[in-house]
Amino acid sequence: MIIPFNKIYYTGKEMEYIGDAISRGQVSGDGYYTKLVSTLIEEEFNVPRAFLTTSATHALEMAFMIIGIKPGDEVIMPSFTFSSTANAALLRGAKIVFADIDDKTLNIDIDDVIRKITGRTRAVVPVHYAGISCEMDRLADIARDYGLYIIEDAAHAVNAKYRGKSLGTWGQMGCYSFHGTKNYICGEGGALLINTDDKNLIEAAGIIRQKGTDRDKFLNGEVDKYSWVGTGSSYAPSDILMALLYAQLQVMDSITSKRKAVHDYYSCRLKRFAEEGVIRFTNIPEGCESNYHIFYILLKDEESRDMVIERLKEKGISAYTHFVPLHTSVMGQTLGYREGQLPVTERAGRCLVRLPIYTGMTALEMEYVMDSLEEILRVM
Ligand SMILES: *Cc1c(COP(=O)(O)O)cnc(C)c1O
Description:
This protein is α/β, with parallel strands linked by helices. The protein contains 14 helices and 13 strands.
């Protein structure tokens, strides 16, 4: 049996909505479907304002522009994340300060965040790895005490919650991804959530997203023509993509429950190996509602990890490592960071395997993955 790592799931409504977007003649940004999607996000996740963007990368870039990050500012984030998290701050000239992660969730270690706060720290960027929340209540308290912004990289975490509140809505801003590898997709797309009623932040976001113009005010009928009013770029996605996304978000809870079934089955089959200490696997702490974006296992060392991936591959199953910690990457080393600085992050970088998990996965496919993995783990 051949099991890919990921398989895109379509709900069946995508072509109808895309065709409709085309026949409406609104294929550029901010058309009919963009409005439907932003309203759905605002209502379902309880967000004051959601701006659809061309990617999560761009949402992160916008967030740092909006809060006016500049050279000399420091931004604390995990190293166990995607390059976009760091690039967005680096593009504004900020200094990136990497905090280690918590061994239990692979999310930012809040005690290490506290140790790394200085007088120049402006923002903290929690990344909700695998769709499982950071300890947001505690982080929010600390950010308040030190006067820091929280920009959530919630690229993995659309439709996941912490203590009943949607991820992406805990910080002043949150960034979602609808990239083709995520849970709810449109190919390339994202959203910037603004979680305050601060008119200035919302207006700044609108201007930055609309090429530095007050086009948003024009669309709302507040001005009779729009013009250049500030710096900005082009971050509004095509309405064709938003039509595709609307089809997905309309049934997001059913997508999540299909993924949960895979997660639950894997957890059940792997429990005894965890009890025997052979592996650890995705851990969803109390208070977290996951969207089951990733299912990972942690092996005891890099050699066993590579062997598991290799043996799964021989059986036709694609399983992957994940982030090369940013501080040990080529760019991280160029910036002056070194191996040895963040031990928990480095261990996750060496020992983690992501197993195939996708929305339309059949019972036979799940069973084959677990039978194969059991066979491998039994002799380790
Ligand atoms: C996927 C991802 C991004 C980037 O998302 P895009 O929409 O592809 O730009 C950013 N951060 C994390 C943690 C991601 O996994």
